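Per-record layout

source: Desulfoprunum benzoelyticum
name: 1-acyl-sn-glycerol-3-phosphate acyltransferase
length: 262
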Amino acid sequence: MHEVLRVDSSYSTAMARRNPSGIAKIWPSLCFYSCFIGIVIKASRLAKAGRYDGEEWTKSSLEVLRLLERIGLQIEISGLTEFTSFDGPCVIIGNHMSMMETLLLPVMIQPLKPVTFVIKESLLTYPVFRHVMRSRDPVAVTRTNPRQDLKTVLEEGAKRLGEGTSIIVFPQTTRTTSFDPAEMTSIGVKLAKKAEVPIVPLALRTDAWMNGKYLKDFGRLNVRRKVYFAFGSALRVIGKGNEEQHRITEFIAAQLTNWNEG
């Protein structure tokens, strides 16, 4: 996604892209989902055929980003050059608000470093989506057995990192539009320490993608809310990692405060 990566580490939706008309202006969510399902079906078919690689994943992610912009959302991204400040893979640790980050992060990171997610096991059985998720070789956890999940992340995550694939971790127990540092586990820091790779902190605000009434992942899109992604300076774990955990949560809290006051 050269438009995002090209200019001094940051990206902001151009006004020309945020000019919804017709049905998109009146029913932005309806317009989005009617097109989004086509993107997902196309990606799923490629994945089932074994042809959904990193490049195709990036293309799908870009399509979703452009679709969100066309219905009126403004998206701001900063800190992308952090991924060029070191060689090799890393662990990206961030807060988790909505389905949006799972869809948009690939276009930001994959062109710079091969990447995958730590995800809930249930996503591997999700209709249509499961083929796409499985093709990305994620680390799947239960979210119900913390001890087993830690073991899985440390073993499988270290394996992916050893193969050169960066890992995105959302250490909160559940998605939430508020941020409580106490709810951020240190699982990502532990993984980075074991694999001896850097950490890139990630703060995001994606509450424009609201929770659904019947399906949590598919709620209304509020185009009045800005979308933000900010990547912080890379960290190396020293000692037990307590200081790095604190710096990650501090970064996220500070960014959210700044965005909420802006």
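summary: DSSP finds nine helices and eight strands in the chain. Residues 2-261 form a domain with the Glycerol-3-phosphate (1)-acyltransferase fold (CATH 3.40.1130).
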